[in-house]
Design brief:
It contains 8 helices and 11 strands. The chain is an alpha+beta fold and about 325 residues long. Helix 3 packs across helix 7. The N terminus is likely disordered.
Length: about 325
């Protein structure tokens, strides 16, 4: 029997928080009544992240290869099987940009406007792929934000997603820091007008900021991240819990030189009709800590990669 939305989201959040306490806020009984019945989001996935030492990635390929060896060694020691992709260290190349007002009004209100451009044969391809995200440390607040597209627009992935982002060894609290992110992506047919009014017409939730329609949206910090990524495979934590791994380096060209932001992450989905067993969740939620213990010089305190870009705008 399929669970109704409110009990479902409470069960999923409770399961998630049991594995990640104490950094995730408790959902109290009185908050359940505040949970929205629409939009009907549920916790689609969790992503576990750690920033890596940039000195190890002056050569991206060598850095990925060396850390891939560490991942395999730690997984083997913990009895975690790895399902490697056919080409685990094949480089993927993108450009990632963030746009905001001069005063960063979107960020101050919890929103993020991101653009991704792919490279093909070393040439940048203008695909006009954008995503609006709303991020908050409180899951109830995150759930209350409706990122439904306006009539006439189609979501790239066909759905609104709710993901928990867990940063390990966070500069925010020194431990695991979790935020909840609602996101919806779109691929536009042509080049957009970079104004608040243009994107508010697509994402009505942005109208809550009451910005003048002509407010210009600028490239945050004047920098686009040059992204290099490998997708080496999956971690098998047991009970059908698979963590899809990414290793990423963002190269940010600043006036003072290139800033590298390397990251290791893995994510897994949640399902509406089942929970993972406690042993599998424990292997999942402690894996990055095991990596840090095995090779502490590779791990540095950090935040979400986007925060590194916004920090350069100050």
């Amino acid at each position: 029997m399929k669970l109704s939305f409110i009990p479902l989201i409470v069960l999923l959040l409770a399961s998630f928080m049991m594995s990640c306490a104490p950094s995730v806020p408790e959902v109290k009984a009185e908050q359940v009544a505040e949970m929205p019945t629409t939009p009907k989001y549920f916790l689609n996935s969790s992503e576990y992240k750690v920033l890596l030492n940039p000195t190890e990635f002056s050569d991206y390929s060598k850095g990925f290869e060396a850390y891939w060896t560490i991942i395999n060694e730690v997984a083997a020691a913990e009895g975690i099987a790895i399902i490697a992709s056919e080409h685990p260290l094949k480089l993927k190349h993108k450009e990632v940009s963030f746009f905001d007002t001069k005063d960063l009004d979107l960020r101050k209100n919890g929103f993020l406007l991101r653009q991704k451009l792919k490279y093909k044969n070393d040439q940048k391809v203008s695909s006009y792929e954008f995503a609006v995200k709303y991020r908050n440390a409180d899951p109830v607040t995150a759930l209350s934000t409706d990122l439904t597209l306006a009539e006439g627009y189609t979501s790239k992935y066909g759905k609104i997603e709710l993901e928990s982002d867990i940063v390990y060894f966070s500069t925010a609290n020194g431990g695991r820091h979790a935020t909840f992110t609602v996101s919806n992506s779109i691929k536009l047919e042509g080049e957009p007008t970079m104004t608040s009014g243009y994107f508010s017409a697509i994402y009505p939730a942005l109208q809550s900021m009451n910005l003048p329609a002509e407010t210009e949206l600028l490239l945050v910090a004047g920098i686009a991240a040059d992204e290099w990524m490998v997708v080496p495979g999956k971690l098998d934590f047991g009970d059908g819990l698979y963590g899809r791994m990414d290793m990423t380096v963002w190269a940010l060209e600043t006036e003072n030189g290139t800033v590298l932001v390397p990251e290791f992450s893995f994510d897994h989905p949640f399902f509406e009709d089942r929970d993972f067993d406690a042993a599998a969740m424990l292997r999942c939620t402690t894996f990055i800590e095991k990596l840090q213990v095995a090779s502490p010089s590779w791990v540095v305190p950090g935040a979400l990669k986007a925060a590194e870009v916004f920090a350069l705008s100050k």
